[in-house]
Here is the input.
Amino acid sequence: MALIRVIPILLLRNGGLVKSIKFADYKYVGDPLNAVKIFNEKEVDELIFLDITATLEGKKPNLVFLKEIASECFMPLTYGGGIKTADEIKDILKVGIEKVCINSAAVENPEMIKKSVDRYGSSSICVSIDVKKNFLGKYEIYTHSGTKNTKYDPVSFAIEMDKAGVGELIVNSIDADGTMNGYNAEIIKKITEKVNMQVVAAGGAGNLEHMFDVVKHGGASAVAAGSMFVFHGKMRAVLISYPSQDEIKNTFIS
Amino acid sequence: MVVIIDYGLGNLGSIKNMLNKIGIQSEISNDLEKINNAEKLILPGVGSFDNGMSSLNDLNLIEALTQKVIIEKTPILGICLGMQLMTKNSQEGTLPGLGWINAETKKFKTHTNTRKFPVPQMGWNYIDIKKNTPICTDFFSESKFYFVHAYYVETYNPDDVLFQSQYGENYTSGFEYKNIIGVQFHPEKSHKYGMKLLRNFINNY
Here is the structure.
C-alpha cells in the first residue's frame, strides 16, 4: 500500500534556517546541517530545502552545502531557490539531490520547465506555487518569496505544468503559512480535480488531523509542513520533532 | 571490491554514501578491468530505458556485464531502471534489454479505484516478501522503501518474484533469479530499511 508522504519544508536564509508567518516575521530556528541530522535520525519521509532569498538576491545554489546535506541524508531531498536554467539543474542532481523545485522561473519561463522535464525526467522536476486569495475571493500566484503578484490563476497554471510533464506540484497557501490552523483544502481540491501529477499541500499544518483533512477533502498526494516540525507549544519554542511511523500510519489509514 | 556501475545515469553518489555509512568500501566505475575484478556489482539508474541501454552499449559494457553475470555468476543488484534493464524489453523504448530474466517492463496505468494513484509513483510503499532468501535476513517488520517510477517489471516465472507491492494493482517490486537481484525501489534513499538490504546483499551473496 502506497503511503502518504509527510514532508518537512526547511527555509534557508543567509545560511541559517528560518520560519515565517504568512511569508513575514521570519524567526531563526537553527543550523541547517544540525536539523538535517536530527530529521535523518527521525527517519522522515523526505526533506524539502528552499533558499528563500536566492532569487531575490540573484544567488546561485550553494553546491558545497547541498553536497554536505546529501551525504548526511538517507531519504529523498528536494532543493529549491534561485534556479533559472535547465543547465543549472544537472549540477544539483549530481551532488545527490533527487529533485529540484522551481517557483519564480516556472511562472516567468514555462519553456524552461518543459526543457528540464525532457532532460531530467518528470520525477526530478518539482514546481511550487505560492497562492493568495485577493479581496474578490480569487486565487493568485505570487513569486519571489511572496513579494510579487503575478495575477496568474493557480488552477490554469497547474494544468499547464501537468501538461509539461512536471512530476510534482507543491501548493503553498500564503494566508495559511505559519498559522498552524490547518491547510487551505479549497485551493488544493480545485487543483487536484484538474491534474494527474502529485500535489503536495503546504501552509498551515498544525497537527496530523490537518494533514488527514487535506488528503481526504483536498485530494493531496503528500503533505508538507514547516512550523509543525520546528516549533513546540504556544510560545513557539524551537524544537525539532516528527511524528512516529505508527502515528503517521494511523492518521491516514483511519 | 563492490563496483557501482557508472553509465552516466542515476544518483551514484547516494549509493556510495549509504555503503560508506554501513562500512562497506565501493567504487563508482565503468572501467572494464575494475568490473571484471569486482566481487559484487550494483547496476543503478534513473531515466529512460533506451537511454540506459545505449549508454551501456556505448561503454562496451553489455558483453562484459553478461560475461560477468551469466558465465561467472557474480552477484548483481539492479536498482530502479537498473532492475528494468535486466528484463527483455520495455514499453518505454524500442531497444532490447539485457534479457537476463524472463520478464518485461511495462507502463503503470493510472488507477483511481480506492483513491488516485498518480503516475509516476513517488513515495514510500510496503513490500510483501514472496520468497525468503538471504537478501531478507533480519528484515524489519513492515519494511518500507522509497519508490520513484512510471514503469514496472512483469515477471513471467512466478519463482523469480522476491517482493510484491501494491500501487492500485499488485506488481513485482523485487526479483531474484540465481545471482541476479533487482529491486524497483531505492534502498539508498530508504533509511535503515535500505541499509539492511544493501548489507545483506554484500554479506550474504
Q: What stands out?
A: The interface with chain A takes residues 11, 13-14, 17-18, 21, 46-48, 110, 116-126, 142, 144, 146, 148-150, 166-167, 186, 188-192, 194-195 of chain B (CB under 8 Å).
